[in-house]
Amino acid sequence: MHSHQAVPAKPWRDRSNSLGYIQGGTAAQAALLQQVLVQLPCDGKDALEWETSEGKHASARCEDLCRRVLSAPGLAERSGEAQWQPSTYAQQWLENRDNSFLAAHLHANVKFFGELLLAIGDQTKHADLLEAATETYGLNWTTLSPVRDRTGWLRSLGMVELWGQRVVRTELGDALLKVLPLCLPETARGEEEQAATEPDAGEREQLAFFGDSLQLEQVDLRNRRALIGYIPRGNASENRDGDSTLTANAALRRLIALLGEGAGLDEFSELCSNEFGISKTSFTSMMHTLRHTGLVEQTSFNYFAPSEDAHRLVDEGNELLLAAYLHVRYLFFGEILLHLGAPATTSALVAVAKETYGYTQATNGEVRLRLAFLQGAGLVERVDWQRFRVTAAGRSLTKHLALQLPAEAESEEADSAAPQDARPSLPEAVIAQLRQHGNVGTDSREFEEAVGRAFAFLGFQAEHLGGSGRTDVLAIAQLAAKDQYRIIVDAKSSGNGQVAESSVKFDALRDHKRKHKADHVVVVGPEFAPRLKNWAVENEAILLRIEELATLLDRHWRNPMPLTELRDAFSRIDAFSDDLDERYQTLERRSLLMRRIIDLASQEALDEDPVDDGYISVENIIYALRKEFTPRPSRQEVDELIAFLSSPVVAALESTKGRHKLIDSPRNLALRLVGLGGTIATD
Q: What is the Cα–Cα distance from 400 to 417, expressed in whole angstroms?
C-alpha cells in the first residue's frame, strides 16, 4: 500500500453493504474502473463507455453507473454543479495506480472487504466466505453474489486468486492484511455493547429536564398521536444536490432556526421554499406537523413562533432529549427499542406496531421517520441498507421511559356474531402456500397455482395455464371493454431463496405477452438477483417478491382496491411498489376517517349533556379530525363519507341542515355492511 500506512476505516455500521459491479468481467473491475473514472466529471444524463475484458463495447448512463455502482463504495460523488466526479481517493488512485491504496480505501468504505481476506484459509471456497459473512459478521446475505463481487474486485487488484473453486490470498493480499484496521466480529454483530445497559449518570441528568412527564399511564400512552407527518429534508431544493439531504434532527433544527423568534405564515413559507424547495401544499402539511409536535405555536393571527422549549429540544447535542419528548407525544416511539434486540426491517416493525400495539395507522414512512430520530440520538443504528438494531444507549433509555404494554387480544365476540360466509376469507391460506411453495425449487406447479389464487383474491379472473410456450398465470380484469386489461404472471420458485439471473427469460415473457394479448407482465418470486431489477425495468416487467404480494393481499383484504386503480399501479413499472403503497394508504386513511366520524357521532349521541340533541356539525367533525390526521382532511373528504353513512342502505347517520346524528349502533352498522358484502360476493 502507498507508504504502507493504514487508512482509517469507517465504523462498521457506516460502511456500505454493497460493492457494485461494472459490466465487463469479474476479475477486470479495477481496469474497467480506470476506464470509467477518466471520463469524469460527467453530466448524469451523458453516456460512459468502456471496453470489456473480452474486447466488447459497453456503455451506461453516467447517472445510473455512478449512483448504483460507484457512489456506495465512495468511488464517485456529485460535484456542486450536479455532475458526477471521482472521489478524492479515486482520483489519487488514478494518479498513483497503487492497487493496495485502492484496496485499503475500499475496505474503509465497504463491509467485509479486508475481513474477507482474513477469512481465507487453506481450502476456502466462496460458500465458506458467505458463511463467515453471515455467521461471523452478522450480515444478512442469502446468496453468493455479494461475496463474488468482493473477490472479483480483490482479484482485479491482485490481492486474491481463484484456483479452481478455491479462493487463495496472494503475497500482495498478505501484505495488505497486515496493515488493515479490521472490524472485530463482535463489533460487527453489535454484541460488545450488550453489557452496557445501566442508566448513565449524564443520561439521567439530561432526562431530569422532563420531571415526571416521562412516566405516563397506559391510557395516556395509548392516546398518543399516531402520525408525526411531513418533515422536509431538503431533497427538493435546488440549493442542495441529491446526496445532501438533511437528517431528521438537522431538518427540524433548521426549521426552528428559520422561524427564529417568530414569523408570519407567508414569510415562513417563503423561507422554507428557498431552503427546502417545497411547494405550498407541502408547506401546509409541514405546518400541521410542526404544530402537532408542540415545537411551534400560533401566537397571533397567521403568526407562529417556537414554543418555550423548542430551541433546547432541537439543539445539536440534545438529540436524546428530543427522542424522549417525541416518545411522550407519539405512538410506537420508544417501544421500537424493545423490538430491535435482533436486527429488524422497517416492514417488520410496522407489523409489530399493528399486531402488538394496535397501531393500525403505522406505515413504513412513519416508522422510518421514528427510526431517523432514534438513530440521530444514537439509540439505534443501521446494520445494513434495510435493517436496524438497538444500541447500548437505546437499551439504557428504555429504563427511563414508561412504555406501552402490548394490546390485549381482540374480543372474539364481534367475529363470532358475523355470518361466516359474509366476507371473503382471510388471505392467510394463500399467503402460506406462496411462502411454502415459492422457496422450494421443485414445487413449481404448486407455486404457480398459489400465485393464480393470489391474483384471484385481488379480483381478477385468474387462470393457471403453465406448460411450454404459455404463461404460468393469465389474470384478466373483467370490466367494460375499454377498462378491461390482462396480466401475464410468471411464477419463479427458488430453493435458495433467490431467483437467478438466468431463470427469467425476458424474450419468452415478451412472446407470452404478445400471445395472450396482455397489457402487463409480472414475475413473482422469493427474491431476485440484483441485476434482474434493472433488466426488468428495461423490459417493462414488474418483479414482485412473495412478501410484497403477501402484504398486498393483506392490505387488499382490509381495504380492497378497485381493479381500475390496480391497473394504474401496474402501469408504473419503475415505481410499482411505491405507487401501490400510496394508493393503499389513501384507502386506509378513508377507512380510518370513516371510523372516527362514527366514533365522534357516537360520543356526541351518548354524551350525558349533549350540546344539540345528539347532533354534531360537519365543522366540529373536521375540527376534531384535523388534530389526528396529516394532511388535514378536506371538507370534500368528510362530506363524501357522511353522505355514504347517511344513505338509506347504510343507515348509520341521520342528517339535517349540516348536522348529523348516529341512529344505530356501530355494531349493527358493521353487521349491515358485512351482510351487504356477503350478498354481493361471488365465487
A: 43
